[in-house]
Amino acid sequence: MKNQTETNTFDAIVVGSGISGGWAAKELTEGGLKTLVLERGGKVEHVTGYTTAFLNPWDFKNRKHLTNKELEERPVQSSHCNAADKHFYVNDKEHPYIQVDPFKWIRGYQVGGRSLTWGRQSYRLSDLDFEANKKDGYGVDWPIRYADLAQWYDYVEDYVGISGSSESIAHLPDGIFLPPIPLNAIEQHLKQKVKEHYSDRVIINGRVANLTQPKKGRGPCMYRNLCSRGCPFAGYFSSNSATLIDAQETGNLTLRANSIVKEVLYDAKTKRAIGIKIIDAISKEEQTFYAKLIFLNASAIATAAILLNSVSPSFPNGLGNSSQQVGHNLMDHIVNEGTYGTFDGLLDKYYEGRSPGTIYIPRFQNINKQTQNPDFVRGYGIQGKGERENWESKATQGFGASLKAQLQTPGKWTISLGGRGEVLPNYENKISLDTQNLDQWGLPLVKVHFKYGDNELAMMEHMTKSSEEILTKAGFKNVGSYRTSPPPGSAVHEMGTARMGNDPKTSVLNKYNQMHDVKNVFITDGSCMTSSACQNPSLTYMALTVRACRYAIDQLKSNQI
Amino acid sequence: MNRRKAIGGILALTGIGIATYTGFNLFYVKSRKGQLHDYKNLVSALVDVIIPATETPGAKQANVQDFVINYMESCSSVKEYNNFFDGLIDLQETCISTYGSNFEKCTLQQQVAIVKDLDSTYEGSGLFSKIRNKISGRPFYTILKALTVEGYCTSELGATQHLVYEPIPARYKAITTIQPNQKAWATK
Lengths: 561, 188
Known about the structure:
The complex is a heterodimer of chains A (561) and B (188). By secondary structure, chain A is α/β, with parallel strands linked by helices. Chain A has 2 domains: 1-164 and 211-331 and 427-450 and 494-561, FAD/NAD(P)-binding domain (3-Layer(bba) Sandwich); 178-206 and 334-421 and 452-487, no CATH class. Chain A is built from 12 helices and 20 strands. Chain A has helices at 2-7, 19-30, 68-73, 127-130, 132-136, 146-160, 185-197, 239-249, 300-309, 401-408, 454-473, 538-557; strands spanning 9-15, 35-38, 98-99, 162-163, 177-178, 204-205, 253-256, 259-267, 272-280, 286-296, 334-335, 339-343, 349-352, 359-361, 380-388, 413-421, 430-438, 444-449, 477-481, 521-523. In chain A, strands 1, 2, 7, 8, 9, 10 and 20 form a 7-stranded mixed beta sheet that branches. In chain A, strands 6, 11, 12, 14, 15, 16 and 19 form a 7-stranded antiparallel beta sheet that branches. Chain B is mainly alpha-helical. Chain B has one domain. In chain B, 61% of the residues lie in helices and 3% in strands. The two termini of chain B are 37 Å apart. The chains are: A alpha/beta (561), B mainly alpha (188). Chains A and B meet through α7, β13 and α10 of A and α4, α6, α8, α9 and β1 of B. Chain A: Keywords: FAD, Flavoprotein, Oxidoreductase. Chain A: InterPro entries: FAD/NAD-bd_sf, GMC_OxRdtase_N, GMC_OxRtase_C, P2Ox-like. Chain A: GO terms for molecular function: flavin adenine dinucleotide binding; oxidoreductase activity, acting on CH-OH group of donors.
């Protein structure tokens, strides 16, 4: 029995191996802690696990299309995956949840999680974001400011490798950048026209975690633009290609795949979490692991579900939930379907290689008095991409040799723009557990309640109109938008379900991502976000994770936890 | 073929008609999947008229027929499958009544004439066709042309000989000057 307990006991346990879990694994193992990483999905080895990475279009029997059977298995995920990367997205039938309101919960149950398929856009938050709740009264105040996080952004960016340009925009701070992915001819044109027509907005190179130069033995990017299949060149950052490898090299890492976390165990005497009970995904047997320190990085919805399922006499409503905020304040980013336009000129210009990057229009509403918008608070950014039409998008005439000739030549230049807007924290947007409906492992299904408010809808209308106006002013033709919004969750930026705050009565985590109620539990995935800002959030999760890990290690070493 | 299209078109012109037609489709459309492999010669001949061999290989040599059939059997909706299947049958009927022979056996001139007739009905991206397609699925020729183009441009011969395919560019030159006879990239 003694041996059994010993092999089940670690200094730290990290739940989840996605983008924030990978960082927790790296920082805790490098800090000398024997660390167990629990991942509910199967193993994906760097390089050899990327089974479709080198396949050509014709190697797929149905090209990129999912079969009807695959669509049936993935009614939710299918909007976000194709035949080449579907294995990195869950089978919805095997992993059901309940949409009380429409909400896409896009998931990747495997080692590396969604760090394999993420959009790689990486932007810092600023004090415009950290002070927003306090200023306009939505949600609770963030317990940190930009100055608390700046050095950790530096640290993370330097390790990850973010390509981008320094722009001196106060509300979108510059970082440690590799050379940016350059703009192509149409993107340059748009940048110039925006400069001519607007004083309040600017087009910048998108900041992406693709390596324009080699970094720590990884990369550089080969410009294949097949990132979501996993990159054998480690051309972009993922847990698999970077943090988990460094964690492994310390000798302190134990990675257990196929381990579904059932609950966090709590000891009322010491007021500490003592371990984690898992269900083996394959054998369905339960097993318990013990540690002095626990990091939850299962992603916002899953982490909240674990807390809500961890009930004890001390916490009948879920671990660390004395505030009654666990599972609440669920946010995503509101996105529109996009605005498109074609351009008649620049036909002598083309490009070589396929850019994995984008252009970006940083937030330009409600920055200051001049940009105050009467219809909504906060703001949105716009991502975009320019390219020449090819066979996929070109309108062709006729058939035979003339059709072939049309297919063979590059088409018109096009630009597509898509807004990403801030969603306000709202207690009614939440996840809860349905104890009457259990999954195949006997765990209660997650129920998602989510509705956009007037602020989000006004913002969406504005992002569509302003995108159309920008393209029209820049001389684009056939400018139009799909006047619909994909269901909430489509941005795959779910967050906010265990928010940080100064007051234990209204928040779950303190300024170090430490549970107010349970001092040896830290949460550094999207759950912790007090507001959503409008920037793609992964970079912030990573910086918060490193900061929390350093603090936790200090606390552990000084016997504070 | 024209008769069936006409009925769909007339029904679709009135709001009530659309609802009735849709209701009918939703409740009574049966899957007839599994039959297209028997029509491989016909599909091969059709795709090769749409994309014939020129100085680069044609669709048939690029095995586009296999993709068209695989897609229709495994990926298409039941509605579109039926539109496609009925389209093939109607096409053969037209060939036999007009030329006394099935499409595969027609002369190239006859085949081209038949496809030209079909192509004149091709509906690209008009609002009306978009709404109609959402309700009843794309019509036969629209499906055939779209799959032929996709299948060819993503085939090994189409992508590497008719277009330019680079599996590992290893560079990104954001602005280049187009060369004489510049071919389009096969992939984005």
